[in-house]
């Protein structure tokens, strides 16, 4: 029954030549991202992906496509999301897949889906690559949620096509991957109409869909092709992306897995299943910064910030899905802090260049993945490490950090330091719209101001500790024992309560649509995913498709 | 108080549902009425609206109340709301509510499902009128013209039947849906009818006969399944509609048979022994048997699509809820719940057609389609006996269910009429051998000349054995007023 538990390794690395479910068609500055799900192409056996319904495999391709459109196609200013099937746009997440998946798989699947959807919005907002959505055929549940990521939703008015969020009446779950929140926060649909919409299985079509702000326009079939093309051209014309630039190739990411060791060029992961921990070491740059931005383009995917981010991104996704029992991630870095800062400076100097812009936004998204990962994260700042600027964010993303004070005997590595850079003060906002330092110092603005004055200066253990930038500083006498005890203790707690506590503590301060999606919405969804009304043998997810209705426990909790 | 058996003809709308005292529904229907008449004038039979047509109108819902024939101008036809008499103490015959008293009102939790089923059924009724609206101009006889118009006015009445349910039980949403039933147009790009086969053209009379034989028979199967419904007003409505539907299928069944009769007769007279010698047969001004077969292939396969996906959650839900039953549910001997039962389903797996056992609840569309295919065989047998009696070896045959499908398991593949899989190239090459092509259409169209003289028939069709209402052969079924 739990097919996902019999682990087949889930690989997030793909490229268009391997796609089963999507294709991209280019028309000058407009790309058409076409969903045409292969019913027999599910990630694991046991379900058919009918009616453009999706599983994690479909989303992995979507994520890859979105990423490649940004890096490989600077000439593309507008992307039209559409269906390659005649009679349906997208029926949402596959119900049988959800029915047979473990709770953990469902949660991780939804999290990745949320991240991909936010990356679509990020492209529109920050990359000059505007997503539009052309809905022909019903867009139900996750199908409409996908449409909601676009900045402009067009619905064909053929009296058959509709948008709907039927999760509640049909499946006794929520449109939990952003559906509810995007409806209210992004499209500002009136709450009572949203209530009606979300309890009406068949959804809404035609003029009412516009009147309720569920879509931006309805278009008769006779004008459909022409209008969609026109809107896409208009959006592309507003883009600041360089029409004549050539993209870089996101070459296949090299990775070797050998037992508990995972090696990328710039990231190594050492898994210790007994201690239930993964040590993730990020290597700083060894090559000097490029002479010019053209040189950076020529280096393509090999340039340090991008190559490092790609490896780290894959490592995070891999560990989340394939190593659920490693509940503790330890972040380490190795390298020269000055070299990291030199790359930061390069990124800052050329911030408006399309490729550099893509790179920093990508690093931002990778860091955000850490923020929403349900693992305890500890950063260890040791001699020879390079927690500077961009890489210092790893320490600030961690639930706690420790820095090695003073000299280590019998070791000629440079002493441990933490170095702040401009990158720590605005380049990589969290989902709450604040930087990690702003979030850290929500209650002590003076500490934030003080930190700002220290930009560029390598801070030793004492200074970093005094300034509140690390949790602990231990010298050679205590380090080994303290760290061992801290990690062992952490790994002994209930994984569920840790997940809950960490998710609460990581996001103080203001709510945004993004934090609401991850925090409030997924928390409710994950609760519902545990409840018998949804997942017991007589619950709605199991009963779906059998013709039998679910038996509900009628108590409101 | 009406007893549900006699029809109240006093108001604007004849009915046996006591509209006189149901202010709300009467007002809704009277508001809808002008739009319906406009639709009929716009989209109903083209021309002939002032002609006097010898039509039957129901004056009661018992078997005797039926056969009331008279001349009437179509726009003045008495479209009414007629339900089969209520069965005392009726209970829900299947699903999880089996044995509970049948619903006289819509249960809230099934409202959306019921409305959808009624709207889809309702949409087919005006659609076929629209599809057939040009046929009056090329009627092969006054007898056939009358039959066409009889079918048309009854499809109009079926629309009324569905609109009554929408108005009576579905509030503002129902009124909105009823309005939209008048707005959609068969084959229109922007406002098409809901189901594929109802957006196809009915270009000639052979198509009309095939349509009434094959596609109206889908209507029959759907009505049979809905007649079992635990929602009693729907059941009663459908039971009465079925009596009308029988006539439509008679028109198709006998129509095709008369075409076949005429063809074999002409071949015999001309001494043609090879029915596939198309050129020689066509030289006689009749429709060759291979072309009749192609028309069958087309209409049968288009109609199969109306049954939807073989495996269907909606069908399962509707059955379990007690809303839509199986064909002749009341005659079936099982638990009428089907929770653990299975049913064999033809599926397309790795490009092969294989039979698999599927949960019976999910396979209800497949089951209804199987019942339909069986039901289709009877007429084909009759047509073949005409050919056989005339001494020809040719036989008409229903194509394989995988042939020419756009919905369901076989939508993704191509198959010939025997169910052998074809690749895209082979399909494109051989399509013309299975389905009518432009040349076939042009030939049939060349035969479509009107015959208005009483008792006379076009060259390609034989006269019927008996007249409608037992009228003699030269009866003037339509008094044409241009
Ligand atoms: Fe009908
Ligand atoms: Fe009919």
TrEMBL record, chain B:
It is an enzyme of class 1 (oxidoreductase). One of its GO terms (molecular function) is oxidoreductase activity. Keywords: Oxidoreductase. The keyword Transferase does not apply. SUPFAM superfamilies: Ferritin-like. Its EC number is 1.14.13.208. This is Benzoyl-CoA 2,3-epoxidase subunit BoxB. It comes from Acidiphilium iwatense.
């Amino acid at each position: 029954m739990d097919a996902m538990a019999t682990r087949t390794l889930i690989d997030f690395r793909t490229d268009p030549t391997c796609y089963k479910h999507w294709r991209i068609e280019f028309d000058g500055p407009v790309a058409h991202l076409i969903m045409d799900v292969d019913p027999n192409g599910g990630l694991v056996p046991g379900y058919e992906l009918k009616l453009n319904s999706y599983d994690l495999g479909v989303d992995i391709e979507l994520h890859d496509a979105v990423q490649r459109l940004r890096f490989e196609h600077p000439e593309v200013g507008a992307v039209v999301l559409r269906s390659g099937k005649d009679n349906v746009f997208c029926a949402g997440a596959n119900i049988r897949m959800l029915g047979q998946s473990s709770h953990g798989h469902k949660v991780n699947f939804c999290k990745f889906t949320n991240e991909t959807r936010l990356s679509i919005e990020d492209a529109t907002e920050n990359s000059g690559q505007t997503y539009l959505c052309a809905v022909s055929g019903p867009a139900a549940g996750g199908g409409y949620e996908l449409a909601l990521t676009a900045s402009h939703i067009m619905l064909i008015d053929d009296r058959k096509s509709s948008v709907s969020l039927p999760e509640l009446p049909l499946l006794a779950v929520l449109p939990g991957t952003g559906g509810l929140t995007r409806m209210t926060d992004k499209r500002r649909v009136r709450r009572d109409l949203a209530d009606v919409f979300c309890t009406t299985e068949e959804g809404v079509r035609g003029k009412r869909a516009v009147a309720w702000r569920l879509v931006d326009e309805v278009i008769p079939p006779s004008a459909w092709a022409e209008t969609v093309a026109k809107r896409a051209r208009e959006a592309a014309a507003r883009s600041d992306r360089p029409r004549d630039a050539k993209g870089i190739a996101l070459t296949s990411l090299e990775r070797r897995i050998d037992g508990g060791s995972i090696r990328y060029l710039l990231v190594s992961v050492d898994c210790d299943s007994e201690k239930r921990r993964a040590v993730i070491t990020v290597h700083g740059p060894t090559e000097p910064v490029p002479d010019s931005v053209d040189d950076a383009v020529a280096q393509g995917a090999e340039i340090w910030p991008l190559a490092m981010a790609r490896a780290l991104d894959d490592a995070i996704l891999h560990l989340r899905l394939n190593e659920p029992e490693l509940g503790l991630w330890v972040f380490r870095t190795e390298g020269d802090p000055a070299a990291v800062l030199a790359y930061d400076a390069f990124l800052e100097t050329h911030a408006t260049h399309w490729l550099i812009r893509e790179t920093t936004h990508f690093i931002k998204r990778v860091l955000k993945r850490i923020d929403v990962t349900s693992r305890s994260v500890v950063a260890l700042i040791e001699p020879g490490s390079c927690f500077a600027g961009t890489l210092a964010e790893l320490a600030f993303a961690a639930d706690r950090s420790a820095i090695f004070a003073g000299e280590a005997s019998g070791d000629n590595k440079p002493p441990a330091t933490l170095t702040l850079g401009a990158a720590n003060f605005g380049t990589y906002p969290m989902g709450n719209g604040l930087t990690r330092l702003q979030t850290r110092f929500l209650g002590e603005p003076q500490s934030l101001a003080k930190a700002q004055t220290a930009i560029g200066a390598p801070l030793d253990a004492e200074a970093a500790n005094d300034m509140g930038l690390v949790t602990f500083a231990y010298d050679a006498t205590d380090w080994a024992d303290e760290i061992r005890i801290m990690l062992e203790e952490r790994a002994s707690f209930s994984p569920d309560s840790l997940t809950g506590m960490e998710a609460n503590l990581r996001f103080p301060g203001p709510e945004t649509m993004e934090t609401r999606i991850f925090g409030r919405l997924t928390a409710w969804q994950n609760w519902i995913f545990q409840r018998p009304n949804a997942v017991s043998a007589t619950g709605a997810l199991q009963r779906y498709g059998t013709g039998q209705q679910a038996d509900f426990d009628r108590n409101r909790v | 108080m009406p007893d549900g058996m006699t029809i109240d003809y006093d108001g604007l709308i004849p009915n046996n549902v006591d509209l006189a005292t149901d202010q709300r529904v009467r007002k809704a229907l009277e508001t809808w009425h002008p739009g319906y008449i406009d639709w009929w004038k716009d989209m109903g039979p083209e021309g002939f609206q002032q002609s006097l047509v010898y039509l039957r109108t129901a004056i009661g819902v018992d078997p005797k109340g039926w056969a009331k024939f008279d001349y009437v101008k179509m726009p003045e036809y008495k479209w009414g709301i007629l339900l089969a008499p209520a069965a005392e103490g009726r209970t829900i015959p299947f699903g999880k509510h089996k044995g509970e008293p049948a619903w006289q009102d819509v249960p809230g939790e099934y409202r959306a499902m019921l409305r959808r089923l009624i709207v889809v059924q309702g949409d087919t009724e005006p659609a076929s009128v629209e599809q057939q609206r040009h046929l009056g101009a090329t009627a092969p006889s006054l007898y056939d013209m009358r039959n066409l118009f009889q079918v048309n006015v009854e499809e109009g009445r079926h629309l009324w039947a569905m609109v009554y349910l929408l108005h009576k039980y579905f509030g503002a949403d129902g009124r909105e849906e009823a309005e939209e039933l008048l707005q959609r147009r068969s084959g229109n790009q922007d406002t098409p009818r809901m189901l594929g086969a109802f957006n196809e053209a009915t270009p000639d009379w052979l198509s009309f006969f095939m349509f009434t034989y094959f596609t109206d028979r889908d209507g029959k199967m759907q009505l049979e399944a809905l007649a079992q419904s635990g929602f009693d007003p729907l059941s009663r409505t459908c039971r009465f509609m079925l009596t009308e539907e029988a006539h439509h299928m008679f028109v198709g069944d006998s129509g095709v048979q008369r075409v076949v009769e005429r063809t074999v007769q002409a071949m015999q007279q001309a001494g043609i022994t090879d029915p596939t010698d198309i050129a020689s047969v066509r030289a006689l001004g009749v429709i060759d048997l291979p072309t009749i077969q192609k028309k069958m292939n087309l209409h049968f396969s288009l109609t199969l699509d109306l049954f939807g996906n073989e495996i269907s959650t909606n069908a399962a839900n509707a059955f379990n809820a007690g809303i839509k039953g199986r064909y002749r549910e009341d005659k079936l001997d099982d638990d009428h719940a089907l929770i653990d039962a299975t049913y064999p389903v033809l599926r397309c797996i790795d490009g092969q057609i294989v039979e698999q056992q599927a949960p019976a609840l999910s396979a209800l569309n497949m089951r209804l389609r199987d019942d339909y295919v069986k039901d289709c065989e009877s007429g084909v047998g009759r047509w073949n006996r005409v050919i056989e009696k005339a001494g020809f070896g040719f036989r008409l045959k229903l194509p394989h269910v995988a042939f020419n499908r756009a919905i369901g398991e076989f939508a993704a593949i191509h198959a010939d009429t025997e169910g052998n899989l074809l690749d895209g190239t082979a399909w494109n090459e051989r399509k013309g051998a299975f389905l009518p092509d432009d040349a076939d259409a042009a030939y049939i169209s060349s035969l479509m000349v009107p015959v208005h003289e009483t008792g006379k028939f076009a060259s390609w069709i034989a006269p019927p054995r008996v007249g409608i209402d037992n009228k003699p052969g030269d009866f003037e079924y339509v008094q044409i007023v241009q």
